[in-house]
């Protein structure tokens, strides 16, 4: 019989403290830079959507389809992430994801037609999709005793990248000569920088982080211990867990709200008479609210036995914000932007609950892939339906009513997902 194969995670655990500390620092840098790149592809387009529509000759309905492409790609490609991670390692997969984002963002403004724009966007979104799924896995495995704080750091960086793209894309486009092509392409540079911290991890450790610590706790130094060789997480029947389904639906409804906001909110303000630059700033305010709150909410969530009260508070802010958009979109624009920014912090809460609703690394990987892929599938019709309603009704009354109506089931399933239980226990009881 062949001798047992020692995994790279075990090799990492046997490294001297200085090496372990260096790897942990590089992982943190990689997590932050990756998170910064997970939304600019979307919010930069939202800020220039009118110019892109005119430049490519898009109808309102097709623009709605364009805003539905991100969740579609996240659903299709996100489900592949756990298998790719087991084969190549999360570090390698995330590194490849950043390359895909950089390439897609560099190509899409110069594709020349709508089809090319969509294909290049899909390439960038594929890289975002696999990274979306693997970030909670990496956080859980390298920082198991700091899931709340590390998820908060990751969510803060994600919110910062989202807000920065919304805020500076329009003025940066003007500074670059007024071409929307240059204003979109410039974000490829940020993605290229995010490739760098993952390269030494892949080269130094081969498939470091590639073996899922399915049932073994991580070490005190933040470096994961290995699971039994060849162990697969497929034994967990994730679809038997009611909590997994509740979390997936919650994830889908909050994603619906987020992508409608990122794709259409600037246009709502512009149609209400707000200048384009100010509309971009208002979208940035909505996104930047996630920077402080994305750090606070996960930490608070991990200290509560039930996350339902946070779900309700965020939902109420969303309902008030939508009511304001309907009644006085320009008059109270800054207040509505703030309230909707608070409501959008359901995203870091959902990520935190992914880490809390599973006990093992394998469980987190499966729950993350299931909740995000299923959730993004649920969110696909929302932005498209908003575009159709907007075009055929000639105003924003019906689209805003749809947004507000979806907030009610989001609160209900969020309360169910926030209960103190794990998917492993639920799946075992239902066998």
Keywords:
431 residues, mainly alpha, Growth Hormone, Chain: A, globular, disordered N terminus
Q: How does this structure look, described?
A:
By secondary structure, the protein is an all-alpha fold. It has a single domain (8-212, 235-429), classed as Growth Hormone, Chain: A (Up-down Bundle). Helix content is 76%, strand content 0%. It contains 22 helices and no strands. The protein has helices at 8-13, 17-36, 40-47, 49-56, 60-78, 81-88, 90-107, 114-142, 147-175, 180-185, 188-195, 198-205, 242-271, 276-288, 290-303, 308-327, 333-343, 346-356, 361-379, 381-393, 397-417, 423-429. α9 (147-175) runs antiparallel to α14 (276-288). The radius of gyration is 21 Å and the shape is globular.
Protein topology:
Blueprint: H1 8-13, H2 17-36, H3 40-47, H4 49-56, H5 60-78, H6 81-88, H7 90-107, H8 114-142, H9 147-175, H10 180-185, H11 188-195, H12 198-205, H13 242-271, H14 276-288, H15 290-303, H16 308-327, H17 333-343, H18 346-356, H19 361-379, H20 381-393, H21 397-417, H22 423-429
Helix pairs in contact: 2-8, 2-9, 2-11, 3-9, 3-13, 5-8, 5-13, 5-19, 5-20, 6-7, 7-8, 7-11, 7-12, 8-9, 8-19, 9-14, 9-15, 9-18, 13-14, 13-18, 13-19, 13-20, 13-21, 14-17, 15-18, 16-17, 16-21, 18-19, 20-21
């Amino acid at each position: 019989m062949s001798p047992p194969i020692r995994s790279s995670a075990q090799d990492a655990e046997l490294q001297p403290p200085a090496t372990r500390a260096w790897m942990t620092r590089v992982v943190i840098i990689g997590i932050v830079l990756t998170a910064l790149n997970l939304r600019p592809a979307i919010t930069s387009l939202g800020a220039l959507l009118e110019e892109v529509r005119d430049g490519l000759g898009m109808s309102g309905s097709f623009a709605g389809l364009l805003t539905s492409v991100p969740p579609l790609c996240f659903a299709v490609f996100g489900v592949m992430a756990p298998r790719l991670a087991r084969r190549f390692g999360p570090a390698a997969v995330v590194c490849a994801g950043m390359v895909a984002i950089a390439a897609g963002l560099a190509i899409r403004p110069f594709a020349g037609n709508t089809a090319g724009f969509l294909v290049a966007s899909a390439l960038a979104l594929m890289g975002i999709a696999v990274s979306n799924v693997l970030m909670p896995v990496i956080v859980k495995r390298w920082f198991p005793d700091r899931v709340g704080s590390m998820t908060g750091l990751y969510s803060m960086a994600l919110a910062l990248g989202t807000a920065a793209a919304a805020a500076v894309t329009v003025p940066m486009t003007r500074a670059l000569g007024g071409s929307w092509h240059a204003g979109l392409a410039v974000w490829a540079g940020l993605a290229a920088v995010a490739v760098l911290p993952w390269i030494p991890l892949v080269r130094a450790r081969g498939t470091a982080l590639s073996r899922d610590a399915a049932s073994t706790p991580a070490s005190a130094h933040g470096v994961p211990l290995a699971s039994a060789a060849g162990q697969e997480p497929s034994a967990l029947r994730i679809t038997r867990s009611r909590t997994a389904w509740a979390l997936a639906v919650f994830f889908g409804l909050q994603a619906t709200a987020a992508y409608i906001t990122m794709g259409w909110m600037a246009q709502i303000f512009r149609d209400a008479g707000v200048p384009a630059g100010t509309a971009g700033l208002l979208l940035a305010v909505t996104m930047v609210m996630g920077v402080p709150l994305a750090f606070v909410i996960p930490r608070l969530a991990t200290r509560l036995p039930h996350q339902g009260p946070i779900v309700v508070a965020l939902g109420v802010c969303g309902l008030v914000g939508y009511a304001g958009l309907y009644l006085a979109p320009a008059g109270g624009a800054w207040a509505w932007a703030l309230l909707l920014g608070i409501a959008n912090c359901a995203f870091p809460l959902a990520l935190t609950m992914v880490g809390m609703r599973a006990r093992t690394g394998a469980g987190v990987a499966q729950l993350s892939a299931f909740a995000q892929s299923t959730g993004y599938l649920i969110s696909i019709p929302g932005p498209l339906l908003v575009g159709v309603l907007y075009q055929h009704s000639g105003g924003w009354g019906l689209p805003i009513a749809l947004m507000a109506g979806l907030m009610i089931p989001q609160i209900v399933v969020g309360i169910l997902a926030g209960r103190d239980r794990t998917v492993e226990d639920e799946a075992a009881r239902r066998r």
